[in-house]
Amino acid sequence: MTDIVPERECVLVGLSGGPEGQALLHRAARIVAGTPGGELHAVHVRATGKAGTESPKELDLQRKLAADLGGTYHTVGGGDPAQTLLDFARSIDATQIVVGVPRGMFSRGTGARLIRAAGDIDVHLVAQERGGGNRPARRPNDLGRLRLIAGFFLAVLLPPALQYLLGHWPHDHFATDLLIQLTGTIAVALLGGLWPAVITAVLSSLIVNYFAVQPVGSMDIRDPENILTLLVFLAVAVAVSLVVGLSARRSREASAAGAEAAALGELSRNAVATQESVPAFLERVREHFQSDGAGLYVRKDYDGEPDVWHPVHSAGVVPSKLQDADNLERMDATRTLALTGRILTQRERRLLTAFGAHLLAMLQRDQLMASRRDVQRLAEGNQMRTSILRAVSHDLRTPLAGIKLAVSSLRQDAVQFPPEEEAELLATIEDYTDRLDSLVGNLLDMSRITGDSMAPLIRPVHWQDAVADALRGLPAEHVLVDLPDNMPPVDADQGMLERVIANIVENALKYARGSDVRITGLVGGMGSATIDGRPASELRIIDAGQGVPTEQVISMFRPFQRLDDAPAGTGIGLGLAVAKGFTEAMGGRLLAENTPGGGLTMVIQLPLSTGV
């Protein structure tokens, strides 16, 4: 008979909030690494009725470690850590559970209960070294059914047992019996609470009266002072029981409040520090309350029908109708947080109210950020329109005025121009027309970039072909091309790549007058640049001009930026902005580096073509 091997391992790590959690995560990661498709889940059980002994710093480190190991981190609430772990393990179909012993809530008792109730889930108990500073202080436990039964049981047996010991211990003082029985009453109060302690006090007073008050062996009391002593004993015993019971109740309430505050604080830190999304926040709420689903419902009006609520975000299983949810928290007039799967207690309802307020703050934060982005886009659009108007008022008017003047001169019938002057006027018209064509082309390209309307046709393109086509119409006497013959093709749009190269070369010739512009390339491959994990090839356009200060490199790629910022300069500062936009649209990068000895080197990086 062969063993059945699971399709994949799903390992759940129980974290108590101590430093040993990192070792447990590494142990679980090794288990997951042994099988393909394994899953790693880390869960911290926050005891709902006990004071938190975990370290928030350790839990934060373990959350990051779980993410680094490819796992997920969860926080759930529950009174019984063992049962809570098993319920969560079955909800994710876990095949193995890893916990440490004997720290904190994952004690030997917890491990034993896990093993007994795990069924077909394997349980790994990892022994941890006991460090004096790592052991949490003991806390008073909840008065559950077992402690209450033990309290009543001890209330009946302890007074006779103490009297039996007193009977074999010679003494002559009536006060000794009272103090010993009072000590027993306090012990019962600590174990079982108020009512077992009251029973102990009454029974102890009767036993002291029978065995220690004259006449011994009778319930009669001859001395009135003894009557007063017994009444004071009974009153003190009951008062001490009341104080102990009240203290235990206050301690439990404070512990529960502390646990709730810690849970809310953790969710707040995650939402603020990591910019947590609404679905992720709802998943944390669902896990904390151990519900089947958590959803955010928004009220909308359809066809005149008011109060129609629809879920817009959810975690787990949520009903389509708001009224079918088990717990509702109205956040404002149009938004409601809903939980389904079980009815919450009054204390949990108060915590759900806090979660709802926090979720509302998250939504308002997202709305403010969206409004800020809209305002920023409007401001950028206004700046763009202002720059375009400035460009039209100057850079378009100058070539148009030159063309009009040249054409008007040629059309004069009264003046006969010599052939060389006529050729010069025609050359002026051609030069200004080329400048207009380049300017209008850059404006149209920039509008496509800012409007996200580009659709590059990606196919294999050779650098040599793109460079040759881009240099047509440019002064070739100052451009030196030195490309390796074995440069492989890259994935690019042929027309866009030509425009990128042409804009960069034209910009270099403008600001590096009197020096040559050199174009070189790197083949790419192992050890070269990569783009999103793909090997990339690069084209380097090098000039020996004035260069660009480091603090101006970023602004150099913004629209309508010119290095000299001089009104007399030609162009409107769109060449590099268009080049960068086209390069990124093709999945590449455009970088600027300082040329050794002075000047600027522009680097175009594009992924190598796969031939597909």
What does this protein structure show overall?
This protein is of the alpha/beta class and 612 residues long. It has helices at residues 21-33, 56-68, 81-91, 108-117, 145-167, 174-192, 194-212, 224-273, 278-289, 346-410, 419-450, 463-470, 494-511, 553-556, 575-585; strands spanning 10-15, 39-46, 72-77, 96-101, 122-127, 293-302, 305-316, 327-330, 335-340, 459-461, 479-482, 490-492, 517-522, 530-531, 534-542, 589-594, 600-607. A hairpin with a 4-residue loop joins strand 8 and strand 9. The radius of gyration is 41 Å and the shape is elongated. The relative contact order is 0.05.
Task: Map the helices and strands.
Layout lengths: L9 E6 L5 H13 L5 E8 L9 H13 L3 E6 L3 H11 L4 E6 L6 H10 L4 E6 L17 H23 L6 H19 L1 H19 L11 H50 L4 H12 L3 E10 L2 E12 L10 E4 L4 E6 L5 H65 L8 H32 L8 E3 L1 H8 L8 E4 L7 E3 L1 H18 L5 E6 L7 E2 L2 E9 L10 H4 L18 H11 L3 E6 L5 E8 L5
Parallel strand pairs: 1-2, 1-4, 2-3, 4-5, 11-13
Antiparallel strand pairs: 6-7, 6-9, 8-9, 10-12, 13-15, 14-15, 15-17, 16-17
Helix pairs in contact: 3-4, 5-6, 5-7, 6-7, 6-8, 7-8, 8-10, 9-10, 10-11, 11-15, 12-13, 13-15
Please provide a brief summary of the model.
50% of the residues lie in helices and 17% in strands. It is an alpha/beta fold and 612 residues long. Helix 6 packs parallel to helix 8 (224-273) and helix 8 runs parallel beside helix 10.
Key attributes of the depicted protein:
612 residues, alpha/beta, Rossmann fold, Helix Hairpins, five-stranded parallel β-sheet, elongated
